[in-house]
Write a structure and sequence with these properties.
- With about 400 residues, the protein is α/β, with parallel strands linked by helices.
- Helix content is about 40%, strand content about 15%.
- The chain is built from 16 helices and 9 strands.
- Strands 4, 5, 6, 7, 8 and 9 form a 6-stranded mixed sheet that branches. A 3-stranded parallel sheet has the order 2-1-3, covered by helices on one side.
- Helix 1 links the parallel strand 1 and strand 2.
- Helix 8 packs across helix 9, helix 8 crosses helix 16 and helix 9 runs parallel beside helix 16.
- The chain starts with about 50 loop residues before the first strand and ends with a helix.
Length: about 400
Amino acid sequence: MKKHVLVLAMSAMLLAACGKKEEPAAAPVESAPVAAAPAAPAGPVLDDEKVLNVYNWPDYITESLISDFEKEFGVKVNYDTFENNEALHAKLVAGNSGYDIVIPTAGFAKKQIDGGLYQPIDKSRLSNYGNLDADFMAKIAGVDPDNKFLVPWAWGFTTVGINKQKVEKALGGMPMPENAWDLVFKPEYSSKLRSCGIAYLDSPSEILPVALHYVGKPAYSENPEDFKLALEMLKKVRKDVRLFSSTMIDDIAGGKACAFIGWSGDINIAGDRAKETGSKDDIVPLLPTGGGLVFIDTMAIPKDAKHVNNAMAFIDFYLRGANAAAMANELNWPTGNKAALPDIKDEVKGNETIFLGPEDTARLIATGGFSNEISGVLNETYNAFKRGK
């Protein structure tokens, strides 16, 4: 989503007190003591234990972010990864996760917020919070009112990606569909792409919303009957799905599939990796006329975090414009940090699968989440689809 850069100019005013008016005196008057220079601003408050435990998605951090933070703040970062929102949720619900910062998708985080699994973010301690675009933050407020618990990491959209050359060969003379979701949801196309492989993200909270939307129902429906319709559609293409992937970048770059439901940034990363190994194939995310599913991944502090001060320092560090810009430049993810835009490369800002134009942005399916009450139906539907029953 391309944002207009708001350049905010701030000026500081220096105030000097006038000296005392000189008056005649019989005896010399001692000069007033010179005021001591103000102390240098203190750095962020850190925990006594200089440790920070972070839980994030794979392939979702720039090369030097951790080492730069460790060097500046003297805090050792332990960095672990999870494969999907469901795995993160299970860790949080079990309690005593040991993590100080986790990176949930905003829509999925709704149930975690409702369940009291996060602690509020003290925005007064984030000197770089003002770098965030207000319109962007309003989108997160749909699941996190008043932006109380979540701070954005990066965003993108779930969509259909393809290996252009392999898909063209598999389709033969059949033209590409107007709506790219047909490639993976309509047997007329999926049966042909079976020969070169179809891959789905292995996540109920990613596949079911786009399937529901495809059959004309709300992407985040709370009606169990809607899930039955989505399952009926998915069953028709189940035999054509080669794999359910939690390592989509490697699977795509390695040629395990030619059409895939994946995250826009991961598809672009996979395309870059394939090129680095000498592949001449074009691997690209598509912009379905039927809409891609917006996701916004966010930083949150678990309720039982042991190093909250260190977590706050890391969040503020990440919100610096240069660090947010590096996410776009190195990993092809757009940002809601307006201070980052001047440092983002022109070729990245000009890539319409990263920073979408207005028409494609308007087609996106808004971020949302499922309630705890419907989660059972969500998981049952997905598992029935994977089993082919």
